[in-house]
Specification:
single chain, alpha/beta, five-stranded mixed β-sheet, three-stranded antiparallel β-sheet, 5 helices, about 25% helix
Length: about 160
C-alpha cells in the first residue's frame, strides 16, 4: 500500500490509523460505493467536502456518507454569512486533492474544519486517505483533536 500525505501526517504525529484499500469505480466515487466495497456501515464512512465562505477562505466539512451537507447550518456555526461548495475545477489547486480522493488531512494549508456530531458516537470512522481506492480508518476523537475540528449538526 502506497503511503499518502494524509497517512504520513498521521504517522509523523504518532496517531494510530489503519489504511483500507478498496476497488475504485470511476462512475461511483461516493461514500456509498466505499461502504459497499469495504463492508462498512455507511454512517461510519465520512465524506470530505471543500467549501468556501464569502471571503473565499477554504472550510472543510466531514459528514456521514449517506447525508447531504446543509450549507446554511455550516455558515451559521462557522460565523459566516454564506458558504458554498468549492468549484470542482478549483479542488486540486486549493486542496491538492481530486474528486473522490479529498481528505481532511494533508491539505496544503491549515484551514478551518468541521465534522458532523454523529462522529462522536462511533468507535471509528473512515475518511479518504487522499487518493481514490484508499481510506483511513481512525478513532474520531483522534482526528478531531489533531485537526482541531469544530463539531456540530451540519447536515440536512
Amino acid at each position: 500500500m502506497k503511503k499518502t500525505n494524509a497517512m504520513r501526517e498521521l504517522e509523523k504525529s504518532k496517531i494510530n490509523y489503519e489504511g483500507i484499500e478498496y476497488k475504485v469505480n470511476e462512475e461511483y466515487l461516493g461514500a456509498i460505493h466505499v461502504a459497499s466495497q469495504t463492508g462498512t456501515d455507511i454512517t461510519k464512512v465520512f465524506k470530505t467536502l471543500a467549501t468556501v465562505n464569502e471571503k473565499n477562505e477554504l472550510i472543510i466539512a466531514c459528514i456521514p456518507g449517506s447525508d447531504e451537507i446543509d450549507l446554511k447550518k455550516l455558515a451559521t456555526i462557522s460565523g459566516n454569512k454564506k458558504i458554498e461548495m468549492l468549484e470542482m475545477k478549483k479542488l486540486q489547486e486549493r486542496t491538492g486533492y481530486i474528486r473522490g480522493g479529498c481528505s481532511p488531512l494533508g491539505i496544503k494549508k491549515r484551514h478551518e474544519s468541521y465534522i458532523h456530531e454523529s462522529a462522536l458516537t462511533k468507535d471509528y470512522i473512515y475518511i479518504s486517505a487522499g487518493q481514490k481506492g484508499l481510506q483511513i480508518k481512525i478513532v474520531p476523537k483522534d482526528l478531531i483533536n489533531y485537526l482541531k475540528m469544530n463539531i456540530g449538526n451540519i447536515i440536512n
